[in-house]
């Protein structure tokens, strides 16, 4: 039987309706998808133990001879057992099969077989039930390196591996995706070799070769896809600014700038004189003062007759930016508007109208800025904060609002230090400004990890801080209680604290599910010091700026990523007061405790991010898929830096020759790129 890639898996033997459904849960419906379903890991069965060395209760594989013939007896209607004994030179054990009478003739007295299964019982009672077995030398159970696939209920390792094996002939017919020039230049294995060896490698070297090529290919597709997406928005020129003197703006500021802030502003002013649009990433740790640099850009745009847009990932942050911009720029005469999803339709309409008529110089907002109704009169500057939270397409959409043939200058702000290669991948060719200096007078936040036994002391400490006039944040991992885990939930816990622990305090609860108006009021009360303690979820993670707050408490700290905890910690220590971050955790895991200790021992955001990246990979690092990159099957953006660079280089060379990947010889590759970017497909065609 010949097999083709589009063929449905139910046409293969052994796949009935139930298994078809189970396979679908793994995202598998065709042979193509099955071959692209790579093992999670591999078991080394090149060295197999003797019987006496084999452990109990874990899958083991060993060779043994049938030392007592297998006999089947019926124990009741519909139930029979087949029993016998096997041994090697170290031990003899009993083996039982239920309802598998057909095995008896296949297990011949005096002959040797390879068995795979779990041993139960101890000492002389050790035995095995329903093991897999094969003749020595057959090589399905042993013979080397066995793939381990991610599974679902109703699908066993053996079944899945069998299915893949049956589909293997198709690997020979798979079309080569990569131009032979690339295979040669980067010494990549052929497609058939890769599919055979990623599933059933004969040696670890073969596996490494297969992996290398498949990773390269995936990274190349990613790189090509992003480049093609960018290409679509790179047409057009920017408005070059004539006036780039910042003196007047700087004089009006309530503080003097740090050297790093000044340097960043100068770098940007240099960009803005060009007709090539600015595309700059401003990286600076939490509290390093990125906002005022953004304000300088807005000010310059205004001086040169252009409008600006500033986009933030949350309602809360957008509102705060609006307030900050208003205080920094409002006095200069800039007209500033706010647009968020939680405003009424009427309010939104009025703001949109003002923006399109050019009656606003700066529009601050959330994703709401991206909707089609939002038009600008003369958009020259686009700024996004915590940019990694927006997808590729969302960024492009905002830039497109500059109008036909025009591109705005783009500034991206991030407190998450991203390794440069990864940044290039996500943001494209971009320049980098780094604020590596905190405003003067900042004291590092003292960080402690405590358990429940210190709760009473902590409560006394909270009271003390508040009596001294400070304010306190307490962050919980979830909004509502429920679920099996015992997590402190903001809503219930806030009520409990208010009623039972701190009745005399002014306490407020803040979480993402609340209405914008409510959030705004609570925020405002906190900013003004009316609320002394804020119990919240991570909505306050990004950007909240209340210098009087001096104590950050995080419940169930083990639930958070290190970068996230670092962000939370950055909410305090913004004023002149000594500040504290208390991480509460009852974790028993030494690994988790190590992570928390790593955080407590450093305030270097870059080191923390790298630690995080190592531990959790980029998907988690940026929040679940919030970086807007497609899901990768085999490549790991954190681990394969060298291959990543090679793939990017290859992508550039390919696109130089064939900018839209239209050449017939690139069609298979183009197909693959499109499949990877399924969700952005419209933008390719
Ligand atoms: P982030 O980089 O985390 O966005 P912000 O821009 O919110 O930091 O700035 C943090 C705080 O530091 C704000 O209260 C801001 O007013 C203050 N700040 C910024 N730059 C300076 C400076 N040069 N001197 C003193 N305070 C500053
Ligand atoms: Mg900020």
Question: Can you walk me through this structure?
Answer:
The chain is of the alpha/beta class. The protein has 4 domains: 1-44 and 151-167, DNA polymerase, domain 1, CATH 1.10.150; 46-143, Beta Barrel (OB fold (Dihydrolipoamide Acetyltransferase, E2P)), CATH 2.40.50.140; 247-435, P-loop containing nucleotide triphosphate hydrolases (Rossmann fold, 3-Layer(aba) Sandwich), CATH 3.40.50.300; 445-602, Rossmann fold (3-Layer(aba) Sandwich), CATH 3.40.50. A 7-stranded parallel β-sheet has the order 11-12-10-13-14-9-15, with helices on both faces. A 6-stranded parallel β-sheet has the order 16-21-20-17-19-18, sandwiched between helices. The chain is globular and about 95 Å long. Helices cover 37% and strands 18% of the residues. The chain starts with 16 loop residues before the first helix and ends in a 9-residue tail after the last helix. Magnesium ion (MG) binds at residues 290-291, 385, 543.
The number of helical segments is 21
CATH superfamily of the largest domain: P-loop containing nucleotide triphosphate hydrolases
CATH structural architecture of the largest domain: 3-Layer(aba) Sandwich
- Structural category: alpha/beta
Rg calculated over all Cα atoms: 31 Å
- Could you say how many structural domains there are in total? 4
Q: Low-confidence segments, ≥5 residues, pLDDT <50?
A: 618-627
Count of beta strands: 21
CATH topology of the largest domain: Rossmann fold
Gross geometry: globular
Strand content: 15-25%
Q: At the first level of CATH, what is the class of the largest domain?
A: Alpha Beta
For the termini, the CA-CA separation is 36 Å
Please give the share of residues in helix: 25-40%
Bound molecules: adenosine-5'-diphosphate, magnesium ion
Walk across the major sheet and give the strand order. Answer: 11-12-10-13-14-9-15
- How would a textbook summarize the main sheet? 7 strands, parallel
Mean pLDDT: 85
């Amino acid at each position: 039987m010949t097999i083709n890639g589009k063929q449905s898996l139910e046409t293969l033997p052994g796949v009935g309706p139930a298994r078809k459904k189970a396979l679908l849960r793994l995202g598998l419906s065709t042979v193509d998808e099955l071959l692209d379903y790579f093992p999670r890991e591999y078991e080394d069965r090149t060295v197999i133990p003797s019987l006496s060395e084999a452990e109990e209760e874990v899958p083991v594989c060993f060779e043994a001879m049938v030392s007592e013939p297998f006999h089947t007896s019926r124990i009741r209607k519909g139930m029979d057992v087949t029993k016998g004994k096997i041994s090697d030179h170290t031990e003899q054990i009993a083996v039982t099969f239920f309802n598998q009478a057909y095995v008896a003739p296949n297990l011949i007295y005096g002959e040797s077989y390879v068995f795979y299964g779990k041993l139960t019982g101890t000492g002389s009672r050790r035995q095995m039930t329903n093991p897999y077995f094969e003749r020595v030398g057959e090589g399905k159970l042993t013979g080397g390196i066995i793939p381990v696939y991610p599974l679902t209920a109703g699908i066993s390792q053996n079944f899945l591996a069998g299915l893949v094996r049956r589909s293997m002939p198709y690997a020979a017919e798979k079309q080569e995706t990569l131009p032979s020039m690339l295979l040669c230049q980067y010494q990549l294995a052929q497609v058939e070799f890769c599919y055979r060896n990623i599933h059933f490698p004969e040696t670890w070297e073969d596996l490494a070769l297969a992996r290398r090529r498949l990773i390269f290919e995936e990274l190349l597709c990613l790189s090509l896809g992003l480049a093609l997406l960018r290409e679509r928005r790179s047409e057009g020129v920017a408005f070059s600014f004539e006036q780039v003197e910042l003196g007047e703006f700087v004089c009006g500021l309530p503080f003097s700038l740090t050297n790093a802030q000044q340097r960043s502003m100068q770098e940007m002013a240099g960009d803005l004189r060009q007709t090539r649009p600015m595309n700059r990433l401003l990286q600076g740790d939490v509290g390093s003062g990125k906002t005022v640099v953004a304000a300088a850009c807005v000010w310059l745009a205004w001086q040169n007759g252009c409008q600006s847009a500033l986009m933030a990932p949350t309602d809360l942050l957008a509102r705060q930016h609006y307030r900050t911009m208003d205080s920094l720029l409002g006095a200069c005469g800039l007209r500033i508007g706010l647009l968020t999803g939680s405003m009424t339709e009427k309010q939104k309409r009025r703001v949109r109208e003002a923006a399109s008529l050019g009656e606003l110089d700066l529009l601050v907002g959330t994703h709401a800025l991206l909707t089609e109704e939002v038009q600008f009169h003369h958009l020259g500057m686009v700024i996004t904060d915590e940019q990694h939270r927006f997808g590729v397409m969302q960024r492009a959409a905002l830039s497109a609002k500059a109008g036909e043939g025009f591109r705005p200058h783009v500034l991206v702000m991030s407190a998450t230090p991203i390794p440069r290669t990864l940044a290039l991948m996500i943001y494209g060719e971009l320049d980098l400004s780094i604020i590596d200096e905190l405003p003067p007078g900042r004291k590092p936040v003292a960080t402690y990890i405590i358990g429940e036994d210190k709760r009473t002391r902590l409560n006394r400490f909270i009271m003390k801080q508040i009596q001294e006039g400070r304010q306190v944040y307490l962050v919980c991992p979830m909004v509502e209680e429920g679920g099996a885990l015992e997590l402190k939930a903001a809503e219930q816990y806030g009520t409990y604290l208010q009623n039972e622990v701190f009745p005399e305090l002014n306490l407020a609860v803040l979480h993402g599910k609340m209405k914008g108006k409510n959030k705004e009021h609570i925020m405002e009360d906190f900013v003004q010091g009316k609320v002394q303690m804020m119990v919240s979820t991570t909505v306050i993670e990004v950007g909240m700026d209340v210098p009087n707050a001096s104590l950050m408490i995080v419940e169930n700290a083990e639930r958070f990523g290190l970068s996230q905890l670092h962000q939370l910690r950055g909410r305090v220590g913004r004023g002149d007061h000594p500040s504290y971050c208390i991480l509460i955790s009852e974790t028993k895991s030494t690994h988790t405790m190590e992570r928390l200790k790593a955080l407590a021992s450093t305030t270097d955001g870059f080191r923390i991010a790298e630690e995080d990246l190592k531990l959790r990979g980029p998907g988690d690092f940026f929040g679940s898929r919030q970086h807007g990159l497609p899901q990768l099957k085999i490549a790991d953006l954190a681990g394969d830096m060298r291959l990543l660079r090679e793939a990017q280089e290859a992508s550039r060379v390919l696109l130089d020759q064939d900018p839209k990947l239209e050449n017939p010889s690139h069609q298979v590759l183009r197909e693959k790129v499109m499949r990877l970017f399924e969700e952005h497909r419209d933008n390719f065609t």
